[in-house]
Amino acid sequence: MDFNKKLTNWYSNNKRDLPWRNTKNPYYIWLSEIILQQTQVKQGLPYYEAFVKTYPTIFDLANATEQEVLKLWQGLGYYSRARNLHTTAKHIAFNLDGEFPNNYKDLLKLKGVGDYTASAIASIAFNEVAAVVDGNVYRVLSRYFGIDTPINSTSGIKEFKKLASSLIDREQPATFNQAIMEFGARQCKPKNPDCAICPLQDGCVALQKGLVETLPVKLKKTKVTNKYFNFLVCVDQNKNIVLEKRTGKGIWQNLYQFPLVESKRSLKTNEFHLLNVEEELFKGLKFDYWLYNESDIIHKLSHQHLYTKFWIVEINELPKGSIPVKNLDLYPTPVLISDFINTFNFNNI
Fold first, then answer.
1. How far apart are CA 257 and CA 245, in angstroms?
2. How do 244-245 and 256-257 pair as beta strands?
3. Residue 12, CB half-sphere, CA atoms under 13 Å: how many?
4. What pLDDT does 341 receive?
5. Residue 302 pLDDT
6. Residue 142's CB: how many other CB atoms inside 10 A?
7. What pLDDT score does 1 carry?
8. Do 313 and 232 form a contact (C-beta atoms < 8 A)?
9. Which CATH number is 2-209 given?
10. 225-348 fold
């Protein structure tokens, strides 16, 4: 097919030299695919290299603690990926003797592995004819064939998967899958693609009909909610500090944070008393406090925006369970907390 030939020719001349493209080891391919979920290559590459160096085999990763894995993952976001990565590593190492499932159907059973990831691993590591459909593929197919079915609708997911499966090169599924993803990432970009040099321009419906900027179509996301976070950075004269581990489901599960109090709005310097924490946290002990940032630090997540204040609480002596400030780096924290830790000068307290 002309589409396939032009695509793979473009790929042979334009593909980036990435480490996971120079191996058929399913562990490395799986690792790269999990890291690159919702993460661009330039951000994910150093994390991939760090994981490969720290955990060169599936057994090394399986034998690590979750805290160690989360710490190495810190800054990538969507931490459920890291927890699932660790769970799956233990399953493969201890239940499957370190052998990865070698087909799409069985790969799909692994925790944290969906249709796209299973297809990518099956085709790249095991040469199975399994078409990948990610954001880049949606964009290429939607524009080239002029499809306006929303890509995040049930019907759209089925339609694009069926189309990709009909197009995939059955002799070279790995090359085709990587070619169409790379083409979407580098040539058929979301904004202002250079259609003048595109090898597929002659058959592209979106280009012919002026729909490049409007395709693909995506249903609107759920409304973003605002939350107001107040972190209490409690430090005593011995340079001990309080950290809490987040438990239960939700964002930042099993990561560490300073004691957190939510408020209904952003609080000002003279409104610390509205947090109602004197008796609960300090139990009558004397303390001084000051507000680190009068303007909110806004941390944007996919479904909510966090308007954040850091309150510095100085106290003579903290109860048992506090940790030395110098040990903060040992604990995996959300990027919002780690940025504060890296910026704040604890020596001034």
1. 6
2. antiparallel
3. 7
4. 94
5. 80
6. 27
7. 57
8. yes
9. 1.10.340.30
10. Nucleoside Triphosphate Pyrophosphohydrolase (3.90.79)
Cα Rg for the chain, rounded, in angstroms?
Answer: 24
User: Considering 33, 99, 159, 171, which one is annotated as catalytic?
Assistant: 33
**What pLDDT, on the 0 to 100 scale, is given for residue 170?**
95
| CA angle at 249 for the pair 134 and 274, rounded to the nearest 5° | 120
Question: What amino acid is encoded at 123 in this protein?
Answer: S
Task: Check residue 280 and give its pLDDT.
Answer: 67
Q: Which two tokens stand for residue 83?
A: 């927890």
pLDDT at residue 151, as a whole number: 95
- Chain-centre distance of CA 98, in angstroms? 25
| Contact yes or no for 104/118 (Cβ under 8 A) | yes
Residues 6+ apart with CB under 8 A from 330: 71
Nearest to 32 by CA among 179, 187, 178: 178
| 49 counts as catalytic | no
**φ/ψ of residue 39, rounded to 5:** -140, 135
Q: Where are the domains of the chain?
A: 2-209, 225-348
**How high is the pLDDT of residue 257?**
96
- Enumerate residues 6+ apart whose C-beta is below 8 A from 209: 146
What letter represents residue 103's amino acid?
N
How many C-beta atoms lie closer than 10 Å to residue 141's C-beta? 24
Can you read off the two tokens belonging to residue 129?
Answer: 């004819």
Residues 122 and 40: their CA atoms lie apart, in Å, by 21
- Cα–Cα distance measured from residue 246 to residue 244, given in angstroms and rounded to the nearest whole number: 6
Tell me the CB-side half-sphere exposure of residue 291, using CA atoms within 13 A: 17
Tokens representing residue 144 in the block: 């080239």
Q: Which amino acid is at 309?
A: K
Q: What is the mean pLDDT of each run of 10 residues along the chain (349 residues)?
A: 89 95 96 93 96 98 97 92 96 97 97 96 97 96 97 95 96 96 96 95 95 93 90 92 88 92 94 81 78 94 92 86 91 94 84
| 184: its two tokens | 């979407």
Q: Which two tokens stand for residue 249?
A: 């489901």
Residue among 288, 286, 285, 259 at smallest CA distance from 272:
288
